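Sample pair:
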Amino acid sequence: MTIGFDAKRYFLNRTGLGNYSRDLVRILEQYYPDNTYLKYTPRLDDNDLSKKALIEEKIRLPKSTFNRAFPALWRSFGIASDLLNDGVELFHGLTGEIPRGLKARGIKSVVTIHDLIFLRYPELYKPIDRWIYNKKFQLAVNHADKIIAISEQTKSDIIDYYAIPEHKIEVIYQGCHPAFKVPKSDDEQDKLRLKYNLPKDFLLNVGSIEKRKNVLQIVKAIQDIDIPLLIIGKKTPYLEEINRYIIANKLERKVIVKHGFTMEELSTIYSMASIFIYPSIFEGFGIPIIEALYAGTPVITTNSGVFPEAGGPSSCYVDPSNVDEINLAIKRILSDSQTSARMISQGRHYVQKFNDEKIASELINCYQSLL
């Protein structure tokens, strides 16, 4: 098979959607190397990932002067002709979008929908952003031959909001970077602790620091906890709100905020943490939970939505709006080594359902069902 991917975020996004795109292509190339995988992107950044792709000649950029000048139009309209010329049999839109003109050229299409948060929580988005997302997603789910939802929660939302027949949607979970699956030595942990001046023991939260992630609730919950909280994420307006609370309550020594780690470093930090805390209001899936389970770290997360689907039976579930409940969950795990050990052991067993080989097989079966 010759498969084309919308690789804009594969090359240009270093977090969530980019990680999904890179991991999906990586595991397909690893387990099904006989296929041809072409990555279509409007441009490249000057980084090692782009240089490697250029060497391997599996990348496709806009060819004409017009398409290079108007890359958004190329992604929506011009790319279909390029796919046909390259002999692409199936196109996979990895981040909720597919171009027009595929059916007319006999090219099958798959689109991954990660979440419909903009419909569930419209107050979190500007009206113009909601309108754009809705138009793109409506086009994608109605015109794609197959829809991949990254969780049962997302599948349910697609059916509820867009009235898409259930048989058109397949749930294929997201994998995670292989670095999280490699055990970390004490020496690796000590070197990283020294490099970034990290405490010996800490609680951990990782992700984009935005209001729906509910990080402020963690800060409020750890005020009488003896070990500090490490928050990993880039600076945002919501972080400024968190910082104001930290200063007002004299918590500067209890909360550490950092960002800019490699995946290898991040996976080591996960393995060093006493507990991973993720009381998000809503997610399409929640890949940081999977990362924590692979790293052997107990998880506290939200008791509704997709979170039990990601965290499995061994994670600790709380009401994300209840600071006292989060506080008590932290204290219980920290004070009971048997509970912590059980959560780690059972979590490592549960997370195997998200292993790369299984995901790759499900993706290939999805593709082959259309050809």
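The chain has a mean pLDDT of 93.
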